[in-house]
User: Fold this.
Amino acid sequence: MSDCLNQKRQEVVTSLITNLSGRNRDFETCLNAHTILFDMTEQAVTFTKLIQREVVVKLIEAACDIMNPNQAYALDVLAKVIREYPDFERSLQQAQQTEFQQTIGMYFHDLTYSSLMVIKASDSALGAEGNDTNQAGANYKRFGMRRMRALELIRHELHSISRYPELNAIQQISIVLRRHLIQTMLSIVSEYSFCSAACHEAIEVLDILKIAFDDEDIEELKSFVIANLSFKRKTHYTFPETGTKATNSNHATIVKIAIALKRLLTSGTTAVRGRSGSIDSVDAPDQDNESHGSGDEKGAVASLPAKSYEHLNDQRWKDFCDKKLKRFESKWTKRLETYTEEDHAQMRYEDQEADVDDIVVTVETTADESGLISLNHEEEEEVSKEFLASSFWKVEDAYKLDDLLADFEQ
Assistant:
């Protein structure tokens, strides 16, 4: 009787996973299967049925099929199983642990590359909506649920294998795959700037990969933050309807990466992975305690291993940290209650210097002087505007509360 019940449970699980595959065209059936499988991952008795090899393989097939209309839900269930596995590991038999780990390890690259393909796929290929317009009239790219589930799967599988440092799994990721992961995460931050959840997941992935970064990875991160934080036309956005300016929606994410990267390159003696993949030891110069970072930077690339003196002596990076990053760092690392009028005056002065830097670059790269006149005109308008109130909240002076109450009583 016990064997019959176990066999019946297994058939039920297989049927539910089939409902997440491309064979099922009933959306309501897919949602029901997703809900049931999600609940099964939270119980030890039913969780053992989800980590059997044939079940995991079927779930991976549904999750990797980009033509599957239910792919987002299959990705979500698979990420949930991988996320919950470390919590149930002690209650599992050794044979069950080995089988699940070998299965995930065998399909690790397939899962990761398939998820990257989903993230990079066009909107038409995913059957998703393209650009949209928010209430402020700004156009933005929709990240979509399927891309989000693929990104979550990447983070969960990397996080799970990073919990076993004895396996040295993160360092064993191929250079090609690591390059694709970093490039994809940076493209998410730049292209889908209005999706804060996706930007946060991207930072989490970079944080997990930090122990495997080599010189080329560091150079790519440096180039990214320098390109996006050097000029105000990159850090600010102009609303098309009102003409007001505000910092870009992904500005906080990029600043967080930049500050963490600066602390990375000024940390102490750590292992260094060169371009050839060999690991060396580098003694970085002593720095103040402030440059070592704190535990508050969770989720950023906050404790990356320091690299060679080549990065420490990079004049371009030094100039960027002294002239550009310093003013962002003072805003992000100083408590609001400790701000004084001198601090605000210094911030306004630094903002004016940033505007001048933009104008100088335009003069050097633009032959037409009319472009410079137009730029100066835009800068003058920006100083006179404040991104505070909008016409929606504005109340006409003619309306007074006493008059309205008097009319109501009549």
Notes: The first strand starts at residue 131 and ends at 133. The chain has three domains: 1-128+140-148, 170-333, 342-410. Residues 159 and 208 are 7 Å apart (CA to CA). The chain has 19 helices and six strands.
